[in-house]
Design a protein that fits this description.
Blueprint (H helix, E strand, L loop, with lengths): L1 E5 L4 H12 L3 E6 L12 E4 L5 H8 L4 E4 L6 H6 L1 H22 L3 E5 L25 H20 L3 E6 L1 E3 L11 H11 L3 E4 L5 E2 L1 E3 H14 L5 E4 L5 E2 H12 L8 E4 L14 H7 L7 H11 L7
Parallel strand pairs: 1-2, 1-4, 2-3, 4-5, 5-6, 6-11, 7-10, 8-13
Antiparallel strand pairs: 9-12
């Protein structure tokens, strides 16, 4: 199978591409930035915006499937500029759906957001049929794009599978430690650097190792039911304070070693988000393999503290 990964140069994308190659699939990556150093040499890289119509026409003629990972914003930037969040993400993706439907591609996987589309919920873990009441512009646009995908599936037979990952974390393919709260907590514990937390540290998230997120996307691509939506999560939640404690254990440091600055709570952050991935498991056999303890230990080994002169 030949797969075009839009946004494949990013954190999750590079892990996904490597898993596709391990299956002996071929990959074409479309990205806005120069070719990332972490991409394997055998991967064709096209530097272009994914709404570049002529580029997409040419690529769609050469591939069997699409994975759409690209997104122009994150939750915090979406709140600071919701108009940009809307314009930068929704029209290009809707145009992509139209082109894919017309091209007769066998499968398109839309990577949405399990962490934001549900909003605050009454109970955990969250199944896919739970009410979706996002409280951030990011979650609203993600859900809007899902709705367009479902509409085109119904009207134009768009062969879409939607996946909703939890909070991905882990080591980058180039050996760096990437971003996100888990990485920041490990770096703070290992290096004695200050750490910022919004709220009191009680916010709970479903942290999914990036290799498991990538495997969940591959599972949706190869074995998911067209038209279905699947969570990619562990079903286990950890608070910010839990992660701090585990990072301290991994680095051999007392938690007091980390200087934590607690900032005011942000209204667009949900109190708790833990995903039920039973549907994906039943459909494909996917299960998360990396425990949070093993993932934090991996980050600790990759962490390089800055030299203080």
């Amino acid at each position: 199978m030949k797969v075009c990964v839009i946004g494949g140069g990013g954190f999750i994308g590079q892990w996904l591409v490597r898993q596709l190659l391990a299956r002996e699939d071929a990959a074409i990556v479309i990205g806005r930035s120069p070719r990332p150093p972490g991409l394997p040499a055998e991967v064709e890289y096209i530097r272009a915006a994914y709404d570049a119509r002529n580029t997409l026409v040419e690529v769609l003629a050469r591939v069997d499937a699409i994975v759409h990972l690209a997104y122009a914003t994150v939750p915090s930037t979406s709140f600071s500029d919701p108009i940009h969040d809307l314009i930068a993400n929704v029209p290009p993706t809707v145009a992509l759906f139209q082109q894919v439907a017309a091209a007769g591609i066998a499968r398109i996987v839309l990577v949405s957001s399990g962490g934001t589309v549900y909003g605050n919920v009454a109970s955990l873990p969250i199944p896919e049929n739970a009410p979706t009441n996002p409280i951030s512009p990011y979650g609203i646009t993600k859900l809007t794009i899902e709705r367009y995908a479902q509409m085109y599936h119904a009207l134009l037979k768009l062969p879409v599978v939607i996946v909703r990952p939890g909070n991905a974390y882990g080591v980058r393919c180039d050996g760096g430690t990437g971003g996100g709260f888990v990485t920041a907590a490990v770096r703070a514990a290992a290096c004695g650097q200050p750490l910022q937390i919004y709220g009191d540290g009680s916010a709970v998230r479903d942290y999914v190792h990036v290799s498991d997120v990538a495997a969940g996307i591959v599972a949706g691509l190869t074995e998911g039911v067209v038209g279905a939506t699947y969570n990619i999560g562990t079903g286990i939640g950890y608070s910010n304070n839990d992660i701090l404690r585990l990072a301290g254990i991994a680095t051999g440091q007392d938690q007091s070693h980390t200087v934590v600055r607690y900032l005011p709570f942000r209204g667009f952050d949900v109190a708790a988000n833990v995903l039920d991935a039973t549907l994906l498991n039943r459909a494909t056999g996917w299960v998360p393999k990396m425990s949070i303890e093993a993932g934090i230990e991996e980050l600790r080994r990759a962490c390089v503290c800055p030299v203080v002169s």
